Amino acid sequence: MPLLGFLLIIIFNLPIYKSTLKILQLADLVRIHIFRLIGTTFLLLGFYQALPSSIALLAGFGDIITAVSSIFVARAIQNNKAYAIKLTWFWNTFGLLDILATSATAFILTKLAIETGSQGVDALAVFPFCFIPAFAPATIIFLHLSVYRKLFTKDA
Length: 156
Hints:
Elements: H1 2-10, H2 15-23, H3 26-31, H4 40-47, H5 53-78, H6 84-116, H7 131-152
């Protein structure tokens, strides 16, 4: 949450961010989401029963779908397809809802693990996996909000 606050309160309002966003093409902002292939990590941790299957499947497949589809969305934007902007709105909303659902599920599983002793997401607190929850959700939310900001402006 501190990183997300910093990104949304400080970075989102900096002139250099705003000018960089004007320079970047919408397709570039979409294409960067290919890094969400990191979601395969959740599937692997779920397969080895280091994470509950509920979050492993939700986070894993959501990230993979968002990452792979970003290629097609970026290509549609670049090729000026008639449906590109509507597709981008849909894709961006799906990706944002996915990361919000994953984060909420992680919070719920952590609370349940503390209260009942059930399996939580503690595997994500161990190096090197700890970098995923520390940086990925805030960065992903920031990137999705940047896509929305780009879509709302006339220079999309």
